[in-house]
């Protein structure tokens, strides 16, 4: 069977990308002329891609300005959003105009943790219980072992979950400006090797991960206990401003919010929001995030009230926002440029970026909700989102 061409000594080069495109053209008969047009340097890609052939170009639009009063993000921001969905950028832009004129969005990162959750199985439940107590008693030694592998990651605590004779240990780390999945895997493995060396009585099986972490899928444990950043964005919209820009009243939008809550409950949805994933995905692609993390990052909570003055209080909470401003895809050329436009690239930028993402989500939720209430949803897509050959 013909193998994809590789060069063990220099696989990240223009020549090898061209060789692989020619190989694929030979096998499929399809030209890859557009895929082969790019500005990035292949030698910058080790650690980001294998068998490189070119790029998938996704258009980037600009929304803003978005005014934020955050713990880390302060001022006006223009948000790059990569998408092929017409109307999306326009909708978020409208929400940003509304919140800007309302005085801005308050943002707060309220928790930070990245996990690996190894499994330990025992001969019986009593041995598992004894192990759990041993872990509690020896936490400081486990922590020291885990942190031998990283200068950035810090083991915060270890949660324990027990079923039958099985015990999961959910290691919670802070990871600086990295998303941290690989960091915590290495640290947890190192700590667990030390645990195994202690000859724990009754232990008959160990696995570094068994789906309680949970990576790249929604889970209620992540929603309750945080994975990545837990961030809140909130705003108060004056009633007159809501009417003039969004063409609906706070009472009408609040009523629709309650119907949407019931619909989400009936459907068994993991989120009562309208479309968290739209804004998160568009910003993730533009800014070099691991896009598969949208699976957990987009499950969140919307909450609203009518204030005593008749204005509209609205917030979104994202409990599992997995983001980075250092490492991964953040250093690639176009992704770095987008992060730099937000003032978030590199060390010290991750909480600021998390706040910007949450504020962006809030703007999209307000805009879509108002479009449904004011019966502008279909007409706006007719105007901006139709792309027929």
TrEMBL record:
Gene Ontology biological process terms from the UniProt entry: coenzyme A metabolic process; isoprenoid biosynthetic process
A molecular function GO annotation: hydroxymethylglutaryl-CoA reductase (NADPH) activity
Signal peptide boundaries: none
Keyword Coiled coil: no
Alphabetical list of PROSITE patterns matching this protein: HMG_COA_REDUCTASE_4 (PS50065)
Keyword line: NADP, Oxidoreductase
Enzyme class: oxidoreductase
Pfam families (UniProt xref): HMG-CoA_red (PF00368)
Family to which the UniProt record says this protein belongs: Belongs to the HMG-CoA reductase family.
PANTHER family recorded: 3-HYDROXY-3-METHYLGLUTARYL-COENZYME A REDUCTASE
Protein name: hydroxymethylglutaryl-CoA reductase (NADPH)
Species in which this protein is naturally found: Aliiglaciecola lipolytica E3
UniProt lineage: Bacteria, Pseudomonadati, Pseudomonadota, Gammaproteobacteria, Alteromonadales
Annotated gene: hmgA
